[in-house]
Every structure is written in C-alpha cells, then in structure tokens.
C-alpha cells in the first residue's frame, strides 16, 4: 500500500525566559519518569499543588495491543494562561525502550508547552525540519496482527516451606479502527510444600485457559462482539468449561475520550457446558448453563482527581436465584490545596457457586487454599488521607542514598 505523507520534525534547541520568574507548573503523571521530565524541562518551576501552578500538566497512559504504551498529554492554563489549552498524543511501540519512549514524551510535551511559553515571553528557538516524499511503500506484512509468547518460572524457599510456579502464555491481537480481536492461551501451575515436625503438606493448583473476543466498532458510542473460550481450573473444581457469549456496549462519551473520561454500559448473554472434577453440592458431574450479565464501568482522570468504578451483575438463566453482584471502586479525590482523600472498596455478593465440590473441605484445603470454599460474600476496603504543606516548589532532583 502506498502512502503520501509529510514528516515535520520539531527540535526545541533552547529556552530562555525574559520575565522575572519561570512559569510555575504542576505535573500529574502516575506512570512516567517525573525526574527525567523535570530535568528536561528545567525552564519551568514545578510546584507541589495545582492551585499554585500557572500550567497544569496531565499525562495519561494506556497499553496498546502491540505491547507498547501510548500517552495523552493535556495542559490547562491557570492565572494569566486561563485562555490557553493544549493537548497532544504520544504513540509507543513494543520496540521502544523506556529511554526512547520518555524522549518521545518530552519532545511532545515541549511542543505542547509552546503556546504558554510564548505568552510568558520566553525567548524560543524552534527549528522546524520538513521532509516530503511523494510516496513510500509502508506495507505492513502482518496486517496489524501482533503475537506475543511469554513464560516465567518462580521459586521461593525457606526452612518450613517451598513454592514454585511456572507460567506459559501465548497472546494474539489485532486492533484497527473497526475491529478489536484478541486471543490468549495460558497455562499456570503452582506447587507448594509446607513442613511441620515430621509432616509434609502439599498443595497443587493448575489452570489452563483459552479466551478470545471479536469486537466490531459500530459508531462513536456503540460496539458489539462475541466472547468465547474454554478453561480448566482445579481450584474451582472445573475439569473442562467452554462458553460462547455475544455482547453489546454503549459508551456515554465518545470512545476517543477514553483516557480522560469513560462511562460504558454493556450487556452479555451466553451459554456454556461444564465438566466437574468432583461431583458438586448440587449433584452434578457435568452441566449446561446459560447466563446474562450487565456491566457498568466508570473512569475519570481529571484535575480534581481520579475515579475508577466497576459494577457487574450476573444471573444464571437456568435458575434465577443463582446470581452474583460485584462492585469495585477506587477514588483519589483532591479536596483542596494539599488535602487528598483516597478510598477503595470491593464487594462481592455470591449466590452462584455451582462448581463447589460435594466433599467436605479438609484443614489442608482451608490453609493451603487448594479448593474453593462456600461463601456468600467477599469484601475489602481501605481509606487514606494525606495533607501536604510547606514550600511550594518541587523542581529539585536529588536521588542520593
């Protein structure tokens, strides 16, 4: 396939400032090298809170199917820069090292900062090198298909216990504007041994799974697809399970805004067949099941903080009383200058443990977590509060000791 393109290379060779002080900046980036960014943008004075800043820099990231990480840079102006807003994107690839990716990010960040620095009367020296070729053969022989093979071996041992785990994984993905296709094959085995006096206790958990999805973009707000797969899990008493489930999703915001704000509602209905390792508490050795599920996903990454929340409700159509409800949420809210509140919670209401084995769980099963145990709920939560005060500046880099 032939492409005609223009490559424009911006090189900001120097910054100097004519005003009495540097522009004050606040950086919000949870997964980037902040020290490197501050070092390469020393023409800014970094401060500890966004209320103290002239410009607020948000850098949000997302993994892409090629195994790389992409970023969206958004800069909001405060004070005399209120009327200026700038945004840009950085595309990463699996071949990028952490060093090359952070160089890309800093170059794009400098470009996005130009309108603010120009208004602040910085003396800018910007070199623009434009290269144009009439056409170039840029065929992708893989047609957007990405393959990844991974494996790991972990060991942990001391006098009273020994653990080893190995994992093998094959992942295949293809993502275009219209399609999202993914398949994953995984094998995971964990062996544990515990020693007490002359006794030895052993635990083995094995999981083998194949999961796939084919999703089609319908519009900026709608998508539809199908999920399929099969798996074996000794912990859940599953010898072999296979399933097929069509799904549809509506996004309240355009999908292109996913890095900053996202609210999606999805519905899935499907059927599957299970073979159990041991007879279940309901007397089944094998079983056909159908279910429906509704999911609400909410995520915001804004100036006032971050919210991530997910609600899932599943009901088995064979028996309407068999259902599960789960809620997971993380909130990191900035109340005012220096004060932040962090909340997280996880609630699961469980009424659908079809696969529980009929045999009584032994003490070893409980302590070594060899098999799933009957329960009606699982919960966890945490709450945190932080208050920062003192010097407003946060630009100095010192990593000694």
Attribute tags:
single chain, 401 residues, mainly beta, Rossmann fold, 2 domains, twelve-stranded antiparallel β-sheet, five-stranded mixed β-sheet, 19 strands, globular, disordered N terminus
Write a structural description.
This protein is mainly beta. It is built from three helices and 19 strands. The strands form three sheets. The chain has a twelve-stranded antiparallel β-sheet with strand order 8-9-10-11-12-13-14-15-16-17-18-19. A hairpin with a 2-residue loop joins strand 15 and strand 16. The longest helix has 22 residues, at 98-119.
List the helices and strands and how they pair.
Elements: E1 2-17, E2 23-28, H1 34-40, E3 44-46, E4 55-63, E5 69-77, E6 85-90, H2 98-119, E7 122-137, E8 145-158, E9 161-175, E10 179-196, E11 199-217, E12 222-233, E13 238-251, E14 261-276, E15 286-302, E16 305-316, E17 323-336, E18 339-350, H3 363-368, E19 377-387
Parallel strand pairs: 2-3, 2-4
Antiparallel strand pairs: 1-7, 4-5, 5-6, 8-9, 9-10, 10-11, 11-12, 12-13, 13-14, 14-15, 15-16, 16-17, 17-18, 18-19
């Amino acid at each position: 396939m032939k492409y005609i393109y223009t490559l424009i290379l911006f090189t900001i060779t120097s910054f100097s400032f004519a005003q009495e002080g540097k522009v004050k900046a606040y950086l919000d980036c949870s997964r980037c090298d902040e020290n490197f960014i501050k070092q390469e943008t020393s023409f800014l004075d970094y401060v500890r809170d966004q209320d103290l800043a002239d410009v607020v820099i948000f850098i949000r990231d997302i993994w892409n199917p090629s195994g790389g990480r992409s970023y969206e840079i958004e800069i909001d102006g405060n004070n005399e820069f209120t009327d200026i807003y700038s945004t840009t994107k950085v595309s990463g690839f699996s071949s990028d090292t952490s060093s090359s990716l952070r160089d890309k990010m800093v170059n794009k960040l400098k470009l996005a900062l130009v309108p603010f620095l120009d208004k602040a009367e910085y003396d800018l020296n910007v070199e623009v090198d434009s290269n144009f070729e009439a056409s170039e053969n840029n065929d992708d022989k893989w047609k957007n298909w990405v393959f990844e093979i991974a494996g790991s071996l972990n060991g942990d041992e001391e006098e009273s216990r020994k653990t080893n785990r190995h994992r093998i994984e094959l992942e295949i993905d293809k993502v275009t504007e219209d399609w999202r296709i993914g398949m994953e094959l995984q094998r995971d085995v964990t062996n544990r041994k515990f020693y007490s006096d002359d006794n030895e206790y052993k635990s083995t958990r094995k999981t083998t799974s194949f999961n796939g999805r084919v999703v089609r973009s319908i519009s900026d707000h709608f998508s539809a697809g199908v999920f399929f797969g099969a798996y074996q899990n000794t912990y859940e008493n599953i010898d072999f399970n296979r399933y097929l489930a069509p799904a549809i999703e509506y996004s309240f915001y355009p999908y292109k805004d996913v890095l900053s704000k996202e609210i999606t509602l999805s519905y899935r209905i499907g059927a599957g067949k299970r073979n159990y390792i041991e007879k279940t508490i309901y007397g089944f050795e094998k079983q056909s099941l159908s279910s429906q599920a509704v999911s609400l996903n909410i995520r915001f990454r804004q100036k006032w903080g971050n919210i991530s929340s997910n609600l899932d409700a599943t009901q088995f159509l064979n028996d309407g009383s068999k259902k599960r409800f789960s809620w997971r949420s993380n909130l990191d809210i900035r109340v005012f200058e220096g004060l932040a509140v962090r909340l997280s919670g996880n609630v699961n209401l469980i009424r659908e443990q079809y696969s529980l084995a009929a045999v009584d769980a032994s003490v070893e099963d409980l302590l070594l977590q060899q098999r799933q145990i009957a329960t009606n709920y699982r919960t966890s939560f945490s709450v945190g509060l932080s208050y920062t005060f003192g010097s407003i500046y946060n630009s100095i880099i010192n990593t000694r000791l």
